[in-house]
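Please predict the structure of the following assembly.
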Amino acid sequence: MKPPSEEHDLIRWIDGEMNETEIATFEERLKQDPVLAKEARQMRELSTSLRTHLPAEMRVPHADYFNTQIEVRITQMALDEARAKQASPGLGAMFQWLRQPWFALAGTAALAVLGFFLLNPATGDASESMIISSYTPNTHVQARTYHDSAADATVLILDGLDAVPAERKVSGINIQRSEVEPELASTTMFDSHGTPVLMISRDALGNPMITPRG
Amino acid sequence: MPASASTDPGEVSDLDLVKRSQAGDTRAFDVLVTRYRGRIYAMTYHLIQNETEAWDLAQEAFIKAWRALPTFKHDAGFYTWLYRIAHNVSYDWLRKKKIQGDGEFDDERTEHRVAVGAEATPKGDLAPDAAMTNAELGQRIQQAIAKLSPEHRQVIVLREVEGLAYEEIAALIPCSLGTVMSRLFYARKKLQEQLHDVYETSI
């Protein structure tokens, strides 16, 4: 075994971390030591191969679902914080879940939207309700929302969705709360009676799966 | 440290998106996730060598980043900061797996036994394959990396994939510069052993 300094010299030579004097000295040594020279060349070639075959950026499997799951978990954290604040008098009234996350299927458009609406906690003003999480398999569809005080309802607008025939029924589900089960990577949503109505999870291939409950 | 992704002139800057995220704008954070998920996933994948676990850990890194956003001071680039979080999440996972002990990561036993200039080629029976395709070589490299210990895998990814300087690797791990160079040496030596048929025939 040779001293660590010799290992370090080899590594620094491969990585181009030597100055010109050090390079000249080390390469002179390589000329005198064919075994070391062979190893140095092989190791440098290995290093080149690693840089070629280990990309710094990769395609993320199910990338849309990757983002959506993050949003769901962030939403859950917001919910947890909201619950904690509700425990203190006065603040609780500022947080309310507005009407409903929507679950809609629109025929060939194959659109599914899950939205979580939350009042702006800073103001408690219903007109500032916002979507804090949504999922649209059709990426051309953008979901946005506003609160219509006259109707006392949150209006969901889906930009980019093909026209939906008037006869098509679109249903909504009134969600009061949700629970995340990290081990199952699933989120269960409950209605005002505490009955589970919807579960979001992944199938064996990691694809998003929305299952009606109850 | 790793640089931010290059942005188009019309693209919203990281700084703007981070400020909006810090104000609670999840849409802005979603843009950051989309911008960096490929790089963060690549890093976790190279470290973990398992698609599903790497996917989960990359996600975990973004969640931790969201939670830590109020403490982000803008004195480092967002990606550098995010990268540190992802690295720590992945490396903690690797260490836990190592502690659980399942026969993996056994390459430390060769450390300090292999000298510079020593014959790195075990007398194995793998036939040299000069015609190995690029894809095959890539697969062999991934397999070889999967056999490295967490410490060796870590320095290889930080140096060869992320291109960090020795000083940056030492600060991130953290450890001394000498340790970084020694680990790089033995990690490469181990990979050379695993891939000896490739490099024996190529020179």
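Chain A touches chain B through 50 residues (CB under 8 Å). Strands of chain A lie at 114-118, 130-135, 142-148, 153-159, 177-181, 186-190, 196-202, 208-212.
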